[in-house]
Each structure stands twice: as structure tokens, then as C-alpha cells.
Amino acid sequence: MNMKVNLAGVELKNPVMTASGTFGSGEEYSEMVDLNRLGAVVTKGVANVPWPGNPTPRIAETYGGMINAIGLQNPGMEVFIKRDIPFLKQYDTKIIVNVCGKTAEDYVEVVERLADEPVDMLEINISCPNVKEGGIAFGQDPKAVEAITREVKRYAKQPVIMKLSPNVTDITVMAKAAEAGGADVLSLINTLTGMKIDINRRTFAVANKTGGLSGPAIKPVAVRMVYQAANAVKIPIIGMGGIMNGSDAMEFILAGAAAVSVGTANFRNPYATEEVVRGIEDYMKKYNVEDIRELIGAVR
């Protein structure tokens, strides 16, 4: 049974990876999860300088998911390169670095710095607020999506994954813009903008007022957007958004995703990623499927 998938020339042993920001850089989960079993580990967002993140409280549980407004807190690329890459290199899994920035120059600085590091792919988080455009996320303007993709591709040595925001009118416009800019792969969806109010304290549940909603509540939206994007572009897609088990992952694969990322599930069940791998294996056995590629986009 073949579970290998190819993303822009990078071969993963299976299509299951972690979603950025939910798994750190693997170390805190490595006691519970055999990282060798995963297709790839996607790191937490890395910026050119340390980011302190947003004020607390930054996380709130919601019905069917959670809201986070962490603000991409991270120690910066130098600490990441010294500490996290050597840790991940011990394992037989692909390393995908999530890159964030507030300007095109920020992204380029990280991409250039990672050019000669032993990482396999770069995932560009374009849901970061673009400070030069008054705080609108890069990913909410197709011209900005195409421009930032093209700029990153000029400097990147590794294949580039553009992570798309769902907080747009038409996801296919964004997918096509990223493809036009030279993206090798797309990943979607990032979190939906949400809000929770604490009725007893009569205030917002997170200090930022709004945050990113993730978890099972967003899965139907994510599956729909992955399907639309897969039918709009020719490049591979990594699907994510509320995947809790193998059955959820199979929905994304059948909708057109060549790989899947498991995020919020890791907080509730640290073994989730390995269980998703087993769930896909069980599905393939049940339906006598020899090669996972037969299932990618099988629902038209």
C-alpha cells in the first residue's frame, strides 16, 4: 500500500503533517508522538526578529473549537535555527518552516536566512497584518498575494507553500493569485475570524477582541474551500481546518487535497496526528485502495 505523496518534488512518506502553531517545533510532543511516523512537521511561525505576541488572555474555548489571538509570538529566526532545526533533523520526517512577517522585506529576510538551512519547504503565512497597508492581512488582497508570492519566490531555495486566509469573498481568486505569483503549493484554510464574549464579566474572552476560530466547527467551510481551490489551480493543496481523525482527513483528500494538516486536535489529543495516519491506512485497506493518489480529488 503506497501512502507517499509528492509536493513540488518533495516526497512525504504519508500525507499527514502538523498545522503551524499547534505543535511548537515538535519537541514538546515528541514524548507522545513518534515524529518518524509523520509526513512532515510544520513549525510554529518564525519571524526575522522575536515577536512578543498579543496581550493575554489569548485563548478561549468555543463550541466545537477554540479562538486564539496569540499574535504569532516567536523567538525569532536565529533562535529557531540554532535550537529547533537540529532537534527536527534527528527524525525521519520532512521539515516545513512557517514564515511570518509584517512587510515583504521581513518575509524575504527569513527566506534568505533559511536558504542554506536543512529544511524541506517554506510555508508563508500571509494572514499576518501588513503594516504598510494599514493592518489588512496580505492574504485578503489578490494583488498583495501575487506580489508577496513573487517576491518570496525570488529568494527562496526551497519550494514555497502559500497559506491562504479564508476571510475573503472568493477563495479561488486568492488561490489563482498565489499560483500566478509562482507558488509551488497552497495550504488552506487558516483560521476564520471569530469573537467570544464572557457574559458574566461583560467583556471579550480574548484581549484582542477577535481571534482565529479553529477546530471541528470550521471543517465544512474548509472542505468547501479546498474543493474550490483544487478545481481552480493546478498546483498541489494541503488541506486543514478541524481535522480530528482519519475520516475528517479523507474528506479533504477526496475534495482534492494532496496532503492534510492536523492542528487544534493536537491540543485535545496529543496522539491525534498518528491516529490520523492510521485512520487513512484503515480507510485504504477497507476499500482496497493500493495508492493514495487514486483518492486525491476523487470527488468531482
Structure explained in plain terms:
This protein has a single domain (5-53, 71-193, 213-294), classed as Alpha-Beta Barrel (TIM Barrel), CATH 3.20.20.70. The chain has helices at residues 77-88, 104-114, 142-155, 171-180, 219-230, 246-255, 265-268, 272-286, and strands spanning 5-7, 10-12, 16-18, 40-42, 59-62, 65-68, 94-99, 121-125, 160-163, 185-188, 192-195, 197-198, 203-204, 210-214, 237-240, 259-262. Strands 3-16-15-10-9-8-7-4 form an 8-stranded parallel β-sheet. The mean pLDDT is 95. Helix content is 29%, strand content 20%. The protein is an alpha/beta fold and 300 residues long.
Provide tags for this entry.
single chain, 16 strands, TIM Barrel, 300 residues, 4-stranded antiparallel beta sheet, 20% strand, 8-stranded parallel beta sheet, 29% helix, alpha/beta, globular
Number of strands: 16
CATH-derived architecture: Alpha-Beta Barrel
> What's the helical proportion of residues?
25-40%
What is the fold named in CATH at topology level?
Answer: TIM Barrel
Broad shape: globular
Rg over CA atoms: 18 Å
Strand order of the largest sheet: 3-16-15-10-9-8-7-4
Structural class: alpha/beta
Q: CATH superfamily, called what? A: Aldolase class I
pLDDT < 50 runs, ≥5 residues: none
Mean pLDDT: 95
Taken in chain order, the helices and strands follow as: EEEEEEHEHEHEHEEEEEHEHEHH
Q: Provide a count of the helices.
A: 8
User: What is the highest CATH level, the class?
Assistant: Alpha Beta
Largest sheet: 8 strands, parallel
| Strand-residue proportion | 15-25%
- Can you tell me the number of structural domains? 1
Q: Distance N terminus to C terminus?
A: 24 Å
